[in-house]
Amino acid sequence: MLYFGIDWSEDQHNLCIRNAAGAAISRVAFEHSLAGFERLEVERRKLNVPASDCPVAIETTYNLVVDFLLEHDYPVYIVPPQATEGYRNRQRSSGAHDDDSDAALLADILRTDRESHRRLRPNTALTQQILAQVRLIEILRRSIQRQSNQLRAVLRRTYAPAVGLFSDLTAPITLQFLSQYPTACEAQALSRQAFETFLRAHGYTRSDLIPLRYARLQEPAPAAQPAVVQAYRSQVQTLAHILLPQVRARAQVLAQLEQLFHQHPDAPLFDSLPGAGPLLAPALL
């Protein structure tokens, strides 16, 4: 049996192969390309050992090189970077390292402590779809949070009543309203009838709350200087325009995730966990 350690990067990966005695019998740098991946296969064939007897240690699961390894029957083990750092500090007090020595260290970790690390099992196609949707939702969540924080800060400076006008600053009705009425003066110039017409045109269903929403809009509030309001008017509109499609996309992806999740045979198990919701249960799965 041989032990492979791969230190990966965006464009090039470093491979170290150790034998059972711990000797480094091959060190290779290969590109992140089909030709580079084939270079790894050529190196293994030179040593005349089947891929199934060549466990590989790597620090990431999300890389095309990992997909290649799994497709070619290599046993792949994930060694978290913090674990690698712990091994490194035990071996060298300085902590200094380079890509080549990291690959060698990963191979040695696998040789001595393989049972302590998780072997990566390929996901089914359905599980992979669920995983991709969960990650996309998280990407959208972070983006929405970052941009809504920026929008909230601008509104508190120039248009404070808009922050709590509707249930949530990222609700579609809020963003649609801010796109059309990005300043307090423009919003307060609306008649009650025009306000109601706008809400109904955008699918707002809480007619019982319309009087309260309109009253809040008309409440006196500290006003920024006109020059400041005008300076930030386009920023309010732009942020609202950026956020609205992301909010809608997140809702759409959540709906798709729910459909995929309930097709999975293990869905009832994760759905039954206390506190598991429409996102947490698929994420745990």
In short:
The protein is of the alpha/beta class and about 280 residues long. The protein has twelve helices and six strands. It has helices spanning about 35-45, 65-70, 80-90, 100-115, 125-160, 170-180, 185-190, 190-200, 210-220, 225-265, 265-270, 280-285; strands at about 5, 10-20, 25-30, 55-60, 75-80, 120.
Written description of the protein model:
This protein has helices at residues 34-46, 64-71, 81-91, 99-113, 125-158, 172-180, 184-188, 192-201, 210-218, 226-263, 267-271, 280-284, and strands at 3-7, 12-18, 24-31, 56-58, 76-78, 118-119. With 285 residues, it is of the alpha/beta class. The chain has a six-stranded mixed sheet with strand order 3-2-1-4-5-6. The longest helix is centred in the last third of the chain and has 38 residues, at 226-263. The protein starts with a strand and ends with a helix.
The number of strands is: 6
What fraction strand? 5-15%
Distance between the termini: 33 Å
Judged by helices, strands and strand pairing, the structural class is alpha/beta
Q: For the CA atoms, what is the radius of gyration?
A: 28 Å
Residue-averaged pLDDT: 90
Globally, the shape reads elongated
Largest sheet: 6 strands, mixed
Features:
12 helices; 57% helix; 6-stranded mixed β-sheet; 285 residues; alpha/beta
Q: What are the SSEs and their pairings?
A:
Elements: E1 3-7, E2 12-18, E3 24-31, H1 34-46, E4 56-58, H2 64-71, E5 76-78, H3 81-91, H4 99-113, E6 118-119, H5 125-158, H6 172-180, H7 184-188, H8 192-201, H9 210-218, H10 226-263, H11 267-271, H12 280-284
Parallel strand pairs: 1-4, 4-5
Antiparallel strand pairs: 1-2, 2-3, 5-6
Helix pairs in contact: 5-10, 6-10
